[in-house]
């Protein structure tokens, strides 16, 4: 192995790769745009959709209540809902979104409020539909206030203080530092996005430097040069790795910058609602990049080896597309709430990196598992690189027809 010759090939291939518009898009444009779109775009759209749904006055249907005119009258006078006439197919009306919610008042409800047995009021909604939930909220608030009103009346009649029903109070205190709150938010999706973008950044160069050269008929010329094949494959691998790492770096810088811009863009009550010190932890992002390094080596070598089998660029795409699914699945598994990092999962490729990056972003540094994950990822990367070198030395693979 001659590092000088490998570096010459690396510089030559990198310059050729950077002339490809697809590489620039996947390496720079996509990572730089994805994070702002996630933080600003999706966040802004979801906030507008929720605000619009909350501003609408929901239509509500009252079921029963013929013997509770006082309660029905109070419901009809609420400004936060619009009561529509009763229909027997109220469940279909809710499912069809003609009515957002319905409330069933049991027989004798109003009379039971004086001293009768407890009654159950049922509120019907369409689970998972946000507008239906907003329709049920005014009803829930109304009956909550009504219950407190009846309790107050009963206590007053018996000359008992309201504290009689509240012997103690409790509060939940968050001990997490403000920056770790940000980490909990980022850790849910960022590791998956970084791994996916790292793979995408390496994909096009890997295909172009193998199947693309076969298609252009330049691989034979390269192999006839007085350079050992191990130096050739190493130079190509370093090119693919460079684009993968550049994609990862652009993604992390875009993430940090977008988060800072999002924080500075908040005005008024929204800015005051943020805890002091709320922001991105750059040390955590640096640690995430360190953990992604062996994964980038593994993905670069694996894609280079797989694309080597293809005879054309299109065929290489058909080979690498299933690999993306194989990589996405463990990365997504790392996002699941119940999935926790342990010694066994620390040996699972991709999944281990996704889990440890989630831990790092939340401010937890399990150094023993970090060392195990880094070591196992380096081992997988070395195996993938060895496989790429071995395949590049087989002419039946290089000149497959």
Mean pLDDT: 85
Q: What string gives the helices and strands in order?
A: HHEHEHEHEHHHHHHHHHHH
Counting DSSP H or I runs of 4 or more residues, the number of helices is: 16
Q: Which residue ranges are poorly predicted, with pLDDT under 50 across at least 5 consecutive positions?
A: 267-273
Strand order of the largest sheet: 2-1-3-4
In short:
By secondary structure, this protein is mostly helical. Helices cover 68% and strands 4% of the residues. It is built from 16 helices and four strands.
Characterise this structure.
The chain is mainly alpha-helical and 401 residues long. The protein folds into 2 domains: 3-38 and 178-398, no CATH class; 54-157, abc type-2 transporter like domain (abc type-2 transporter like fold), CATH 3.40.1710.10. It contains 16 helices and 4 strands. The chain has helices spanning 3-18, 21-55, 69-76, 90-95, 109-115, 130-157, 178-187, 190-216, 219-223, 229-265, 268-272, 282-307, 313-333, 351-361, 367-392, 395-398; strands at 59-64, 82-84, 101-105, 122-124. The protein has a 4-stranded mixed sheet. The longest helix has 37 residues, at 229-265. It starts with a helix and ends with a helix. Residues 267-273 have low confidence and may be disordered.
SSE map:
Elements: H1 3-18, H2 21-55, E1 59-64, H3 69-76, E2 82-84, H4 90-95, E3 101-105, H5 109-115, E4 122-124, H6 130-157, H7 178-187, H8 190-216, H9 219-223, H10 229-265, H11 268-272, H12 282-307, H13 313-333, H14 351-361, H15 367-392, H16 395-398
Parallel strand pairs: 1-2, 1-3
Antiparallel strand pairs: 3-4
Helix pairs in contact: 1-10, 2-8, 2-10, 7-14, 8-10, 8-12, 8-13, 8-14, 10-12, 10-15, 12-14, 12-15, 13-14
């Amino acid at each position: 192995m001659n590092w000088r010759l490998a570096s010459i090939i690396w510089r030559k291939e990198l310059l050729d790769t950077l002339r490809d518009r697809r590489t620039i898009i996947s390496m720079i444009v996509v990572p730089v745009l994805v994070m702002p779109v996630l933080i600003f775009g999706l966040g802004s759209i979801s906030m507008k959709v929720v605000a619009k749904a909350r501003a609408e006055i929901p239509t509500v249907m009252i079921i029963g209540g013929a013997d509770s005119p006082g309660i029905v009258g109070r419901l009809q006078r609420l400004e936060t809902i619009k009561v529509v006439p009763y229909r027997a197919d109220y469940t279909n009306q809710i499912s069809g979104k003609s009515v957002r919610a319905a409330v069933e008042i049991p027989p004798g409800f109003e009379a039971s409020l004086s001293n009768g047995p407890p009654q159950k009021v049922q509120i019907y909604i369409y689970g998972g539909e946000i507008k239906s939930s907003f329709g049920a909220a005014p009803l829930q608030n109304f009956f909550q206030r009504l219950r407190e009103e009846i309790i107050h009346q009963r206590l007053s009649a018996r000359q008992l203080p309201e504290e009689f029903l509240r012997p103690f109070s409790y509060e939940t205190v968050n001990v997490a530092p403000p920056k770790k709150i940000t980490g909990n938010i980022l850790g849910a999706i960022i590791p998956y996005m970084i791994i996916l973008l790292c793979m995408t950044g390496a994909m096009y160069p890997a295909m172009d430097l193998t199947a693309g050269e076969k298609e252009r008929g330049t691989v034979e010329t390269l192999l006839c040069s007085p350079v050992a094949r191990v130096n050739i494959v190493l130079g190509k691998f370093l090119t693919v790795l460079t684009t993968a790492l550049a994609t990862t770096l652009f993604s992390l810088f875009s993430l940090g910058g977008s988060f800072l811009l999002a924080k500075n863009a908040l005005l008024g009550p929204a800015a005051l609602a943020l805890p002091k010190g709320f922001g991105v932890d750059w040390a955590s992002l640096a640690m995430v990049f360190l953990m992604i390094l062996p994964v980038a080596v593994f993905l670069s070598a694996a894609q280079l080896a797989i694309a080597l089998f293809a005879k054309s660029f299109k065929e290489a795409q058909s080979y690498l597309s299933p690999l993306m699914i194989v990589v996405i699945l463990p990365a997504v598994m790392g996002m699941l709430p119940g999935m926790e990092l342990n010694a066994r999962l620390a040996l699972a490729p991709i999944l281990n990196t996704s889990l440890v990056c989630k831990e790092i972003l939340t401010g937890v540094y399990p150094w023993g598992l970090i060392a195990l994950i880094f070591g196992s990822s380096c081992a997988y990367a070395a195996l993938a690189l060895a496989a790429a070198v071995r395949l590049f030395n087989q002419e039946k693979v290089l000149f497959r027809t």
